[in-house]
Amino acid sequence: MAKLGYRKRHLIISAIGALLIGPWGILLGAMFTFSFRSNESPWAYAFDVVTFWSQVAAILFSFIKPRIAAIWMLLSVGVSVLIGLGFEIQSAYAPNAYHLNAAQWIATLPGTAKTSATFWGLPIIFALLLLNTVRRHNSPVSIENSTL
């Protein structure tokens, strides 16, 4: 069986990402956006833009520049995690804030893991696949074996 070329491999990965992550990101982004109240925190708006809408744009950009799109996706995940942490820290210092004890923190871990996988699992896998394709294309072995 013939090997797929670099361009075809990255287009297949981009197409699969567009089919899986695109609709999921648009659905979650729209649901998140339309659940906002009039007094919503700027943290929530920033989280929505970075977590959902930025990833949709990065997927579309992956068809043109896969390395930049992969880095964009990973930065989007990192920034959205930091925004989420910032929101939680700000909420913890709000007046009359409820503080969890150690057992309650442990009890929230399965739900936190599920939420993390929902928001960031597929985008991380997509970005790593794109980076792997780009890395293989730029490796010295693939340059030596390529035909001109």
Could you write a compact summary of the structure shown?
The protein has 5 helices and no strands. By secondary structure, the protein is mostly helical. The chain has one domain.
Question: What structural class do the secondary elements suggest?
Answer: mainly alpha
Number of DSSP E strands: 0
Poorly predicted runs are none
The backbone outline, from C-alpha atoms, is elongated
The helix content is: over 70%
Give the C-alpha Rg.
19 Å
SS element count, helices: 5
- Structurally, the number of domains stands at 1
Written as H for each helix and E for each strand, in order along the chain, the element string is HHHHH
- Head-to-tail CA distance between termini: 21 Å
Mean pLDDT, to the nearest integer, reads 83
Draw up the topology in text.
Blueprint: H1 6-34, H2 42-61, H3 66-92, H4 102-138, H5 140-145
Helix pairs in contact: 1-2, 1-4, 2-3, 3-4
What does this structure look like?
- This protein is mainly alpha-helical.
- Helix content is 80%, strand content 0%.
- It is elongated, with a radius of gyration of 19 Å.
Structural descriptors:
single chain, mainly alpha, 0% strand, 148 residues, 80% helix, 5 helices
